[in-house]
Amino acid sequence: MKELEKTHSVCPACFQEGKIHKIDAQIIEDDGKVWIAKTCDQHGDFKDIYFGDVALYERWMKFEKRGDIAPDVKPSLFDDPLLYPEHHSQSVLTNLLVTNRCNLRCGYCFMNAGASGYVYEPSLDEIKKMLMQARNERPMGSKAIQITGGEPTIREDLFDIIRMAREAGFSHIQLNSNGIKLAESVEYCKKLKAAKVNTVYMSFDGVTKETNPWMDQLLQTIENFREANLRAVLVPVIIGEKNLHETGKIIQFALDHIDIIRGVNFQPVSFCGRITKIKDEKREKQRVDYVRMMEVIEKEFNGLISRDDFYPVPFVYPISELIESLKGEKQVEFTAHPGCGGATYIFLEDGKPLPITRFIDVERFMKFINEQAKVKGPLKKVRIATSFLRNVDQFVDKEKAPKDFDLKKILIDASVGGSYDSLRGFHYKSLFVGSMWFMDTFNLNLHRLERCCIHYTTEEGIVPFCSYNGLGYGDKIREKHSIPIKEWEAKTGRPMREDLWKHGPLT
Question: What are the φ and ψ backbone dihedral angles of 268, each rounded to 5 degrees?
């Protein structure tokens, strides 16, 4: 056993008793894997898987990048102890929760939607305040918002919320949905497109009815998206005993519908919300780390997609530096901890998946981008464009690259235009495949938490994702700003059970 990092965490047993108890923790190597280990003076020792391959973990950690201080992100709320001194990542994506009502009752829901005994549904005025709070976040206002729930499509004023987000200045709007309502109406999907929703972040837990009971409805949703020219990212919650075996098949499904599906973002299950209290044996079976998931994907694609094709979130940080240098203004910085997740781009060539790493030397390429970001002087754009013309071919294996992929043009457009929009060529005929490794009280690493780059904007301030869900801050915030179900029913004149989907299984 070898210690890799000293950190802090919380005691999961204390948390289940209703308090947050900050304790020392260590990231350790044991039997070729990486674990988080900690001891509570009251409840004893805890150990949970952190990363299933120590060599891969060490390679990912080489890309660690600490971000600027984000003073508006809360390191603690209510009367809980200070988790860490200050936050060190700005918002790459801000979540806006508009309701805790939902038409489904998924057993793994970290939001505990529809089962809390109260209704959380902020008014439009309250939502406007939270939107502006996110836009005014320091050191840089958030540009991307995800409207989430519960199920946002339950709200009749959803399009007013989308309009408000545009008016507030968000350039990218995601709608997080289970897709059920979207299956029922092409016109509703067209209205989302007309409202300039960029992407529907859609729940999609498998390709069979055993893993995805509403598969028929989601197939219809995709057809409706095709008619409405609306794009989707599939979001599977991966659970060891439930749907881990279908992770590769989900990617293949996305490739089969690549004209509509722009990405797959896996979310291995986090033990919070409805499943905070779970026995160790069951947690070990259901826990899915990056390596365990990749083993299934590698087998499904016979090595055409592998764990080595993926890189951690901060790997792309040099692109932010380059754009910032060209535009002369601060840009979104991907400074999440490497352990928070990774991604790749997969192209489809002759019907087969082709990860970007198979035809571009991505590590040398990012090093080159980093060097260009340091170029100074009045002719900076011209000098960078010239450098791209001279050097880019050395990073690309043209024999292996997609036939119509032109990296040189993409980079020159980016250097001259100085905009992320100029880099959209990376998305051409490609599928984004990523993973988000959200934490709970069992595997919480506070060094990771302080660099979270996905936040919630709330009535109590801006809160990191894994604090909001994994540490129960979201429960406390929603309860504080909610009304009991009976009061809501009296106010609206209808029973809450009317929310439930009536045409199939709820979970």
Answer: -55, 140
